[in-house]
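## retry 2 of 3
previous attempt timed out at serialization; input unchanged, resubmitting
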Amino acid sequence: MTRKQKRLAVIGSGMGFLALAAALTFYALGQQTSYFYMPSDLLSQPAAAQERIRLGGLVQQGSVERGQGTHVSFVVADGQNGVPVVYDGILPDLFREEQGVVIEGRMGPDGVFVADTVLAKHDETYMPREVADRLKKDGLWQEQ
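## retry succeeded, writing output
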């Protein structure tokens, strides 16, 4: 092998390695992507079966029901529609009715959202941006 051929082989191997690393990175990021829905969006355009999504809105007044252990069910609403949610885990301290939440999980075949992560708003003025934008658009939330 000549010097030029060795150099081309090293450069080609390096580029192949970088392409493989980039492909694996994009594949891993694609697996972690979760699309954001409001309850009305989810009911009008259902997510694909077992697709991981984020659902945002307000916890509907009077909908929180605590079951055995850490099992809890509630409804996330956007003022027009609500989606029933079940969650088995410890809820954030700031979780309560009529407060903004973003939950992650999958839509079950029975129309109940099965959450594996619940995120509650941080303080009195915080609202997740996607939720606030949608509620403002629908005229259901005023920024203070």
